[in-house]
Amino acid sequence: MTAVANDNACQSNGNAISRFIRKIIESRRARRGMHDMLSLGDHLLRDIGVTRFDVHTALNASNGSCGERLAILAQENRRSQYRHACGKTGSALQTKDDTVKLAA
User: Fold this and answer.
1) Would you say residue 89 has pLDDT above 50?
2) pTM of the predicted protein model
3) In whole angstroms, what is the distance from residue 36 CA to residue 45 CA?
4) Residues 16/10, Cβ–Cβ less than 8 Å
5) Which residue in 22, 66, 71 sits closest to 49, CA to CA?
6) 3-state secondary structure (DSSP) of residue 95
7) How many of the other CB atoms lie within 10 Å of CB of 103?
């Protein structure tokens, strides 16, 4: 019983050093994943919704995680493709129906 109580106390403590180290490890894993994506072919990257340039841009992002940045770039690509396919030139979707079509 004592071991469980001590284990729970250690987990709830979560000091700044352990959080910092955890963030570094997560960041390195994400960057390694981005580098692995660069080994994929262009057609596979296109299927995912990103380009090789998007992956490089996400890796070089100075703020936020590279995974979050890549997700934003992929969403921008989908919106751009949708507007191009529908002949829209505006930067924002015009109606709520446009948002629903984009999600599909």
Assistant:
1) yes
2) 0.56
3) 11
4) no
5) 71
6) coil
7) 7
Angstrom distances, CA of residue 26 to CA of 13, 33, 85? 20, 11, 37
**pLDDT at position 84 over 60:** yes
Answer for the pair 37, 56: CB distance below 8 angstroms, yes or no. no
Mean of the pLDDT values across residues 52-81? Answer: 85
Q: Give 3-state DSSP helix, strand, coil % of the chain, rounded to 5.
A: 75, 0, 25
Closest CA to 46 of 58, 34, 37, 59: 37
CB atoms within 10 A of CB 54: 20
**Gap between the Cα atoms of 70 and 50, Å rounded:** 8
Separation between Cα atoms, residue 45 and residue 52, nearest integer Å:
7
Query: Domain residue spans in the chain?
Result: 12-103
